[in-house]
Amino acid sequence: MTATESSVEGSGRTGDPMLTVDDIAVYYGNIAAVKGLSIKVHPGEIVTLIGSNGAGKSTTLRAISGLLKTKSGSIDFNGERLTGREGHEIVKMGICQSPEGRRIFPRMTVSENLDLGAFLRNDKEGIEADRQRVLELFPRLADRITQKAGTMSGGEQQMLAVARALMGRPQLLLLDEPSMGLAPVLVDLIFDTIETIRDQGTTVLVVEQNALAALRIADYAYVLESGVLKLEGPAAPMAENDDIVRAYLGG
User: Which fold has domain 33-248?
Assistant: First the structure.
């Protein structure tokens, strides 16, 4: 399997993509972090972007969410151009991100962090419904609703970061290294919850160094190496191919 048209055949992907990243390049100063990357995310999918540390995965998510500017190429979401838009505009359009390292507000309570996730919304009933939804997804947060976020465990903070992103009611949820630093039992819980989020109607693009865990839940996968797309295809066969696992996934 290679990153060619033949790798896409038989993937089961039909219809127009929700997100189209077309030949983007992203630089940090004079250093190219992403070089000519093209990916697509279709409605209802879990798509994973995997690769080693420094492969350009997080940079790609930041470019999609407007936190980094692309030097070339284009990004489109539901037929509208994202390239050049500010981050808050992209959130309004229906893309929310749970960032690497969680980035919760440690001195605020769980409840206040969730409120900040809905800061661009004014539909009070909808906000309350989404609050109840995320507390059902993550019952531990309900138990700690008045607790300062910085006093919680790493796993609980990761749950809060995902829940806060969901409070924006995204059509597309971007997850950056959701399993980083978590105990194995919590990694399983986080990935099971990502599947539930998709089943509830939110499309997910997840960046992960834990490639095999990501491939277990994903529909489609892209493998990055040094900012370049090396491989793409349906996730399940990729996880079962010993040659691919050894060459790209650290197996």
Answer: Rossmann fold (3.40.50)
